[in-house]
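Morning!

This is the sequence you dropped in the shared folder:
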Amino acid sequence: MLREHQVKLGPVRTCYFEGGNRLGHTVVLVHEGGYGGDAPNTFGRLAERLADEYYLVLPEMLGFGGTDKAVFFGENPYEPRLRHLAAFLDALDLGEAHFVGNSFGGGMVLRLSIREETSWRMKSATSISGTGGPFRTPEALKEMAEYLPSIEAAWRLDSWILHPGARDEAHARARFESSMRPGQWEVMTAPTLRNPAQPEQARPWDFPEALSASAVPTLLVAGTLDRMLEAGWEDMVAKHLKHVRVERLEAGHSPNISHPDDTAILLRDFFDHVDGR
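The structure's back. Tokens below.
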């Protein structure tokens, strides 16, 4: 259903997938940012539920999947990937589209909605468990940072990403295999390097306050069983948005993986609302 392609953006070889109904509205799906995250294992199941009606585009960000494994030091993890996605959208000359992201990808979508070079393309922005940076629990941050590639480690990471007690063998296998791509683990681990002559300083987040600049209709989807984020993150983000809808699912951090049918229903209803259908 999804076809894989490569496009060269300057020196960066960029992988993306596309498929679905060419006559439908375009939906851009931005994957999660954990070890072994990529477009198919984040959104493959959801894509199956949307392909009949929508044209789907799934880019893979810097350091993930089939895209080059590049690291930019001295910046937060969003900025170089935002520039990369902006260049990708220009290269494909995509018109207006609905944008959906999960976890780190959800934060990317929120950030794209306030950037001049990308916000004009966005009919809507949906963040599934993505805050743009803040409200992550210390326990989850610790668990994410300690990943050493193995099937068991991929399952443990998934037990945080999906929901407590979840054991999705197919998804854990896909995560592990993606984390074994040359350079993927190194890209994810590189930001832990510190100049010993320069004291580490906490970086203040500009989110969620910066979202007051967004004019894009936004959907925030929260999982009531999510252990990755502080409870009520969706309300703390929503109060800074002018045009926002909040929905909650009885799921963990990534209902797009664990509950694709329920997630597809929410998205279809929101897209129809935005499109005036």
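Headline: The first helix runs from residue 39 to 50.

More detail when I'm at my desk.
O.
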